[in-house]
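Sequence, structure tokens reproduced for reference:
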Amino acid sequence: MKDMLKFLNESPTSFQAITNIAEMLDKEGYKELKESEEYKLEKGGKYYVSRNGSSIIAFNIGKNLNDASLQITASHSDCPSFKLKPEAFIYENGFLKLNTEVYGGPIYYPWMDRPLCLAGRLIVKENGLLKTENYDSQKPFCLIPSLAIHMNREMNKGLSLNPQIDLLPLCGMEKADIKEYLSKECGKEVVGFDLYLYPEQKAFVWGMNEEFISSFHIDNLECAYTTLKGFIAGENAENINVYCCFDNEEVGSLTRQGADSDFLETTLRRLADELGLNYYRLLAKGMMLSCDNAHGLHPNHPEKADPTNRPTMNKGIVIKYNANQSYTSDGLSAAIFAELLKTNNIPYQYFTNRSDVKGGSTLGNISNGHSSIVSVDIGLAQLAMHSPVETCGSKDVESMIQAVAAFYSAHLKDNNLI
């Protein structure tokens, strides 16, 4: 749990998250591949490849592939926030403000009146060449001030916030140029950037018995972290085990590094070709865990949950269903995974939306549009999804690591994980 808190604190954006994941893989002996270079793979080998610095796919190859099983987990590295526009400063009425754009679907109100930092990546020019490097201010850079209640007596009755008016952060009182400021900060010529806001507050454990973890970016770095730890821990000589963490899930995944790209498909095709395996047979003999957190039962609003499929924090893995297939789970895929959890004494529960509420979607079905495979959607229960301070159950971290390790250690044979 402490290690996950460190991971959360050091991964404010997808760029830092993927860098940290790559470093964890390096320590475990995984070899980095480049998409622009030839893949030279061996049975028993461990590899990873990244795209855009914000998505990553890692895989380890069993030594006995006569009846190879392909087993995949997928999570995402991004989260709702506010992204800087190219001309990022507005100076008016003696105030310097950031011109930002909403990324994904954040809950607006909790972002106000709290110190906000700046992180992402910079594009710098060195010796006439453009290079990318991660950036994290690691200190408060701006704040979104709310109106005093004296100026809007109706505020507590519900206020509609305009992102172009109410949510522009204050960052100074003098004119400035964003690229000049960033160049001074990093000591290099900055010619471009992808920068986001994040709250200064660090991840923390709380509750009478330390039952809860609260942090920015729990959705979906909790799954990214726990599936990675399970991936590293699990192994089967007859498997090709694959770990995926995609960017841009919060905005639809339709980017070159998102789940709706060819990243997974081309990686699997190149892997199969290099190992002399049939790509289509490999897909038919595989399974994916689409891993993204679920809405937990809210202590003050139990009426928002389904009457019977209402997961609770610290009660184990959540298997997610949706009749309209926003999630990939069906009776077969869910049963296969549930049997594995039962065998390993790992607690699990189910989630569906209320029948009168439309829910969100996630990675599984999007990815399946490119590389179709038996899939089940899972996650962990949390509160305040898309808030800058989300909450999850501290006991569930270990449950997910154990579940994913068991998945990767098992072998898929005749619709059974054995």
